[in-house]
Structure formats: C-alpha cells, structure tokens
C-alpha cells in the first residue's frame, strides 16, 4: 500500500475522530448517557452510536459510489432537520422522566457472603419488578445505534461529495468510509466515557444527579430547537 493511500486512510481516521466532537453528536449521546451510572455503560453507548453512524455511511456510500446516486440539497437539509427534531425528542424524554418523578436508588444485597451495591433510577410509575434478578446486566438497548444511524444519514451528503471529489477508486472510497467510521466509533467511545463522568460522580447524590440530567435534557431541547430554526427558516428548508 503506497504512501498516498495510507495518507488518505489516515486522514479519514483522524477526520472520523474529529467528527465525533460535533456538538449535535455529543449532545445526543449525553441525553442517553445521562441515564447511565457507570463508565462502562457510558462507553458502550458511544461505541453503539459510532457503529450506527458507520452503518449508515457505508450503506449510503455504497449507493453513491457504486450507482452514482445523487443526494439533492433539499433532501440533505431534510435529514439535518430530522437530527434537530431527534435532539428535541431525546431531551424532552429526559425532562419527561424527571418530571414524572424518577428517583435515584441504591440497591444493596448479598451474594455468597459478598455485599453488592448497585445504583438504579426508578420511575415513579414503573418500578422494575425483577430488578433483583437482572441488576448485573448492562442493558443499553438499541437507542444509541438508531441515533447514530440518523446522524450518519444526515452527515452523509457532505462526506460523500468530499470522497467522490478526491478519491478516484471505488474500493478505496469505501475503505475510506470504513476507516472514517472506525475513527468515529473510537472517538465517540472516548467522548461518551468522558461525558459519563459527571453522571457517574453525582450518582450517589440524588439532587446533583437530577440537576445534571436536567441540564443535559434542557441543552438537547434548546440546541435541537435552535438547529431546527436555522435549517428550516434561516437556510430556507420550509421557505
């Protein structure tokens, strides 16, 4: 593999790492991480987001590179607008759970003479029936993956134009997208771990935990509404 190919792939990896730092990505992940109380669980959220993001890029990239599919500007704007709406929904979901009276609870029990302490967030209306049975499981769910897919579709138009304009080989272009995805997975894995720090550190303090979660939800809603206004009105999607 010659130097030019390595340079292109290296650039893709670094760009993927940088891509994970985009404000809308970090805000979306923070709303999901806000419900996690461990560094490991927070890291998994970021990794799943990155995998979802990469899967969208690869699918759309395959269509663009192999079949020369053109993504209209208006469609690209519409996908960006969907990200803004998603941020509003994610933030509103966090605020709704807080408003419903979700409370932090430390569950203490013994297994084979060993004392275990596990933090949980219980919603007032839905207390987990089998909490004692499944507290060891790290349940993250499919939300981070789906959120990552939406972000991948929204950011694909500009990325595809860059790839097609600079890389003549279809194989290398797809490999570039894959390496870009690896960078975004690694970047978001690290960032979600860091984002999880304040949530993990305040986990044993109910009021602080609620304040941090409230800030994450309010920021997501505010940023989502601002982005929707920018895309829909300022950039003329609906005009």
How does this model look, in words?
The structure is a single chain. This protein is mainly alpha-helical and 239 residues long. It has one domain (7-127, 141-234). It is 72% helix and 8% strand. It contains nine helices and two strands; from the N terminus they run H-H-H-H-E-E-H-H-H-H-H. The protein has a two-stranded antiparallel sheet. A hairpin with a 2-residue loop joins strand 1 (103-111) and strand 2 (114-122). Helix 2 packs antiparallel against helix 6, helix 3 packs antiparallel against helix 8 and helix 4 packs antiparallel against helix 6. The termini are far apart. The model is unreliable at 125-138 (pLDDT under 50).
In short:
By secondary structure, the chain is mainly α. It has nine helices and two strands; from the N terminus they run ααααββααααα.
Question: Which key terms come to mind for this protein?
Answer:
2 strands; 9 helices; 239 residues; mainly alpha
- Given the C-alpha coordinates, what overall shape results? globular
Order of helices and strands: HHHHEEHHHHH
As a percent range, the share of helical residues equals over 70%
Q: Uncertain spans, ≥5 residues at pLDDT below 50?
A: 125-138
Main pleated sheet: 2 strands, antiparallel
Distance between the termini: 49 Å
- Average pLDDT figure: 82
Number of strands: 2
Number of domains: 1
Q: Structural class, from helix and strand content?
A: mainly alpha
How are the SSEs ordered, and which strands pair?
Elements: H1 3-19, H2 23-33, H3 39-67, H4 73-99, E1 103-111, E2 114-122, H5 131-134, H6 143-154, H7 156-166, H8 170-201, H9 206-234
Antiparallel strand pairs: 1-2
Helix pairs in contact: 1-8, 2-4, 2-6, 2-8, 2-9, 3-6, 3-8, 4-6, 4-9
